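User
Take a look at the entry that follows and flag anything odd:
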Amino acid sequence: MRSGSTIKARPNQPSASTQDLTSEDHLAKGIASHESGNFKESTYHLRIAAKANLPTAMLLYALACRHGWGMRPNPGEGVQWLRRAADCASLEIADDEDGKKEGKVTDVQQQKARRAQFALSIYELGVSHMNGWGIEQDKALALRCFEIAGNWGDADAMAEAGFCYTQGAGCKKDLMKAAKWYRMAEAKGMSMVGNSWIYKPKYADDGGDGRKEKPPTPEKKPRDKSRTRTIFGRKKS
């Protein structure tokens, strides 16, 4: 076995009923096991579901590989699964679009879920590129990932793009672009405490966004360079 290979997690004694589970069942068990703190069993089920080509399972198993949840950390394998998750989600989105053209009735909620899945996968690829986790560090490519995911509606990606333009990470500093991405993130429900400057007229795309500048806040919390999510959502700051 190569030193960089991943140790595959397995429950101590898989039951006969476990072998009869569907891929969706394995995904559900993986999520439930993670919530209960049984990371080894969670990763076992997520891996099975991921190998059955479920995009959500691919994404969650990728994060398990990156962070070492119930297994030896292997960020490189995590990147591979993130790419597969993005590819699968994009194919499902393309199928949805083809169905619309053919007049087929599609589930709106499922469409939204697939778009969010794609955006999250691209966002997490950006995090990998930004930090050099399992792949060569490339901040310019990371920013591009954040912009793509942000345009697909991912709030964390919008905030990361704003942070990159504020700091000049992977690009030249551009406060106007930073303000635009930060405003987009706030419109999606993300708190922009300490960033009242983004509403100044000089940082608006058209010289003014029609909103009054927010009063400055007494305390500004430093922004983490990575806002990598947990397996079920965003980290609470």
In short: Residues 75-101 form the longest helix (27 residues). Residues 120 and 233 are 10 Å apart (CA to CA). The two ends are 40 Å apart (CA to CA).
